[in-house]
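pasting for ref. prot 1 ->
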Amino acid sequence: MSRSISPWLRWISYGIYGFLYLPILLIVVYSFNVSRFGVRWTGFTVDWYLRLFQNPTTLAATLNTITLAVVSTAISTVLGSLLGYGLYRYHFPGKKIFQLLMYLPVIIPDIVMAIGLLLFYKFVRTYTGLFELGMSTMILAHVTFQIAFVAIVVRSRLLAVDPALEEAAHDLYADSWATLRYVVFPLALPGIVAGALLAFTLSIDDFVISFFTSGPTSVTLPILIYSSVRRGVTPEINALSTVIIAVTVLAIVIANRVAGSRKASTRF
């Protein structure tokens, strides 16, 4: 029975993957098309990529995107890792409720979070003069949702660790700091790196929250693509989208490799 069903399942899988990834493939293919308009293939060229990286507006948006992703990822990785370890290691009143609330930035629609952050910034600015929309508000907004992702990944990694390893460290006269440094941290490192790469990918791809919390001089690549595509999809947009896809795929591949690693140093 299974032999008669498996071919159907295989073709259904092919159809699903084709529907999901064919549009992405078309973006990549037409970023090398000579024709500036239309979908007719007229020849191969890399001129659109050369023009892309010679455009000062694109370069400025790229710098803003990288700055936003790197800074927000660094902050959220530190805070998210500490939060994940705290939820794994300690018990306190209301811990279950706090764990449920930690998932709120993950499941809440981006548009709701974006509007909430914008209203918060305007409220604080009205009464204190702080939080002028720009790179600083975008970094804070990205950290707000990145922390939850990092904490969830790190906590899940630590929950898979055998508690006997920490007990063995204490039996070998290691204090709490030595256990944390030489046992817990190396074991949690794959989760920390995976969480950081996930946060970096989310920051690179984010549009809604960035759009609502950005200023006139803090345009990122997703915002630039949105404003440009309203005038029509051009090969420059395809090339720019391809670059973002390549960076995102690379980050996901690295995250999967790191998350799947089970090797860790436990030396004292």
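and prot 2 ->
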Amino acid sequence: MQEKAFLILEDGKTFSGYSFGAPGSCFGEIVFNTGMAGYQEIITDPSYKGQIVTLTYPLIGNYGVNPEDTESRKVFTEGLVVKEYSKIRSNWRSSESLGDYLKRYNICAIEGVDTRAVTLHIRQAGAMMAGLFCAEDALLSKEEMLQKIKSAPGLVGRDLVKVVSITKKYTWSPKKKAKWRAVVLDCGVKYNTLRHLLNCGCEVIVVPVNTSYEEILSYKPHGLLLSNGPGDPAAVANVVETTRMLIGRLPIFGICLGHQMLGRAFGGKTFKLKFGHHGVNHPVKDLKSGKIAITSQNHGFCVDIDSLNKKEIELTHVNLNDQTLEGMRHKKLPIFSVQFHPEAGPGPNDAAYLFDEFVGLMKKHK
């Protein structure tokens, strides 16, 4: 027998359904993701820490989960909302059902929800805090649920990077002798980013987010990658300062949160988007070539285009949906960044060439 569950939004909007994850309750900013597949990659993306994810595709779980498609060491999303959870998993790579996987990591999940209605509400009202109440917690009164939601911490001003980052450095080395050494500052990096660097012939040294700029330079890297990650870039001032100290010392490539931290290190400002960009079908225009790439994205904050010094910073990419900044490059130094996820996982590979550009900068500045 399925146990009742409720999704309650901060403004009182209520959706009922059934629990298929862990019992209990969870809290986070409610967002939606438009991907038709890749749910395992989505829930293991550390950038989703602090968020409850609504998947807009109506059938989820039909191919199960497997060890190869994980994007980090565990599930980081706070909770999961779906229309229909498939109790039958059919894929030769599947080793576990999605429901059992979520229970193993103590993640609440609800099915039977009109996810189209949730998405429309978020688009109109904006992203807000929400709570999932499953099993026994679903017996609480609505007033009690709302009080718990309003007491939960939001994303603005909250440093979630320190929660998702590793505590000890580790190395990925290619089978052949590495041509280049890249240090990755782990703000919540996805494994697919490391795979791309490895395929480009890089030895990859992943370091905790609190690593000093002196220690980073002590590894004698050819380049630095500032990774994706969760939360508000304004809340990680220490990482922005580390980034600022490394500007001009080596080639730097920033992805998502890494892009935002570079923007702040350059003196720019960041702001909260109404409902963020989450999904695998966001069109981005390369301003130099005029080409359009369909990109994978996951962020709730953005760099303010008008806050950047145009004498030093060249805008390289723009989002065609809302004209927000999607990429920039320093005019003199070997530094560039993008707001989207060129590593995909899940999503299209239109922007994978950016890893080759990063390696190209390392070659020039060896």
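The chain is about 25% helix and 30% strand.
The chain has two domains: 4-151, 161-364.
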